[in-house]
Amino acid sequence: MLLYAVYCAAWVFLFSQIPFYMESAILLLALPVVLLIAWQPLKVVAAGIGLFFASLAITFVWVVPISMQAVGRIGLVVFSVCLLWAVQYLRMARKGPLFFQESKVTTLKQIAQHETILGMIENLVQWLLKSGDWHTGIEEVLSTVGQVTHAGRVYVFENYLDPNRGLLARWKYEWTAPAGSARIDEPLLQNYSFQENELSHWATLLSQNHLVNTQTRDLAELPRKRFAKHSISSVLIVPIFVNGQWWGGIGLDECENERTWNASEVHILRIAANLLGAVIERQESERLVKNLLQQERHLREVFQTLSEVGASILATHELEPLLDMLLEQMRRVIEYDSASIMLRYGDKVRISRSAGRPGKKFCPVSMKTELEFDITSTRNLREMFESKKPLIIPDTQEYDWLFVEGVEYIRSFAGAPILVQGEVVAFLTLDKAEPNYYQPEYLELLSIFSSYAGLALQNARYLESASRRVEEAETLRKASSLVASELDLEQVLKEILIQLEKVVPYDSASVFLATHEGLKIMAGRYLPNDNAIIGQTLPIEDKLFQEISSTHSALILEDAQQDNRFLKFGDTDYIRGWMGLPMFLRGQIIGYLSIDNKTPGAYSLESANLVQAFANEAAVAIENARLFQQVQLLAITDPLTGIFNRRYFFEIGGREFRRSVRHHHSLALVLIDIDHFKQFNDLYGHLAGDMVLREIGKESQKHLRESDIFARFGGEEFVLLLPETTAQDAFPIAERLRTIINELRVDVGGEKVFVSVSMGVAERSSDTNNLNDLFENADRALYAAKEQGRGRVTIWDSKNPIHFSSK
Predict the structure, then answer these.
(1) pLDDT digits over 531-560, tens only?
(2) Could you give the CA distance from residue 472 to residue 470 in angstroms, rounded to a whole number?
(3) In 281-360, at which residue ranges do the beta strands (DSSP E only) sit?
(4) N or C: which end of the chain has fewer CB within 10 A?
(5) Calpha distance 475→613 (Å, rounded)
(6) 358: how many CB neighbours lie within 10 A of its CB?
């Protein structure tokens, strides 16, 4: 306001120096300016016009100095105020929104930020669709996220498992604000342990697809100091999931002031994390498909090459006939008196095939296929092995030749290593009795033919491997099919071990299932003492199974007796080779297969891969059997008390009745009824009644034999079938149950309440035709017990209906 006053006074003084007619002219010219100022949309234009006339007025003041006039001074003041308002508006329009427009402009900013987010999403989606490698362009994505969220640092980290330290994180990429400093090269961030840095709860949150949104001051002392060292005040991390597994995360750091990350920023980071996870998952799938296509293409090229270089050699794909074919076809290329193919076994070679020239006497090598040579101590073999090239020895007498009895005739030698994928697998050797027969010009022919031989051997091995895999796959299919055909859990476990032997040979094997107590041995085959071992529980801390659980892969022991991790559980001294595998179901380990062999090193990675496929099928079969068992249990169980229901009682009771008739065994039935149960429910409520029913079912079950059949008949009635029991023997059992039930106390709203029961006992007799007749007799005895005052046990007898009663 002071500025306005000073400014107006200055204008009054200046206008006092010019004539009245000039003042009037200026006022007339200023009138449209004032009118324009009245319209909001034209304020900026009006401000410009006002400035123009202000300049004109100042010019008149300095150019036409005339004596003072008194008329129109007030009008000049009004004009000056309007002009100053226009100038002030122009200044505020340049610097920012006016106070009465702040709310509207703020909304516009939010819309602009939302549009920026949408633009970022569009860019990320385009990157997702176009990117061939997620590493390409990720820095641009992080830069976009950083600029939109105004964060100090944006980074991506990836998890990996260290065998010693467990789960670690490694920073992969980072973007920092211009004023920030990069941290990606710090050793700590390349091997970051949440646990060691007292941030285990972060790992738990992220692995459960929750975000981390915190301030540095809220952290524990160790991480707080480390974060403060790098001026990190606020952190926001969103996890990245790939194929349903926690892969890593994307995070934001604020390095200036504490910051509360708003919903838009969290949303941005969620979008970036989800899209990054999707592109990684897609590219991993593409890479897998690409590798498979490359392998297929490579095999196709190999077969095409083989067909081109020699149809006669490649016509035979079995190893044994192929070796004979190689020697036969070699004769058509290079003459020899004798020839052999030596297969390599480590540092040694053994003559596998040999041949002599027809019509000549040089055939003794064919009789010496048992000959074995050491590569390092045999000069010609060593040179070919090391150079991987053919060798010509024109005259063996001028060479450090190893003479062997029976082949002294050899004077000239030609040989070549046979390579498969760059590795020497065999040697082709040609011998002549004529000195200087083989000369360097044969080297090229030997090289070409050995290449053909290598391809042929490789082809034969591929086909042998493929044939073996087909057989393994068929065995696996049949085994899995047989296992899946069972629905009884015990039979499924037995079938798993039977079919497992067809997949991989073993001397003994067992199935462990995870329980809350540990690893329980559910089934075993060929174990030294099945009855003593099956049902036992290993501690969950077992080192071998812990390693399998942490790596999610098979574990193979070359010699179990020499491995300190191997727990000698039972009579296991015979176990040398050992393999343990997890059984996966929907990504979770539900159990393990333990496979034992008396031979050290009996199992390989290849056999483990085959058994793992079987183990996963076995896990599905186990789960199906469990579900079937649960469904069966639900069908025969009373949902309230957990004991058998009425339908199942008559089903199993009918079988037991017929068995007692067939074997002339006694059979007793006890019918139990809660006294005045309707009044109890009316007084305490049906929930309290349900509690009583559950307690009676649970406590009664504890005091019965395994062979006894106890069920809830309906409402407040229970029924008990006692095989091989007379009525006289059933009476004390019933009396004991009555006493136990009468002593039960149920807490209802702080009050200990109880009930009494009446029981009727009946025994199968010659007059009892079926279970219904037996039940009706027990019901008559129960009615008699009710008539006699309740809270008692009554025995029914066909001759004496109320045989005995007690209270």
Answers:
(1) 778 888 877 778 888 888 889 899 999 898
(2) 5
(3) 338-345, 348-356
(4) N
(5) 12
(6) 7
